[in-house]
Design brief:
The chain has one domain. It contains two helices and no strands. The radius of gyration is 18 Å and the shape is elongated. The protein starts with 23 loop residues before the first helix and ends with a helix.
Length: 71
Amino acid sequence: MYNVTSVKHDNKDDALGPQLLITRGKLNLLNKGMQHFLYMRSLEESCRASACCTSLYLVFRLYHHQAIQSK
């Protein structure tokens, strides 16, 4: 699992200004989002690998696409 513990922003000439600050709540949300993404990705890969699962894979892709669109 990937786990984001800190965010560092060193480029002080950037348009965002010095030090990009991210709160602990936002980091937790980012971690959960990354874990969800990796889980969905592994589900997708395992389903695609199985030939008998093709129709389920297509249904999964459609459902996942609609879930993203509704957010």
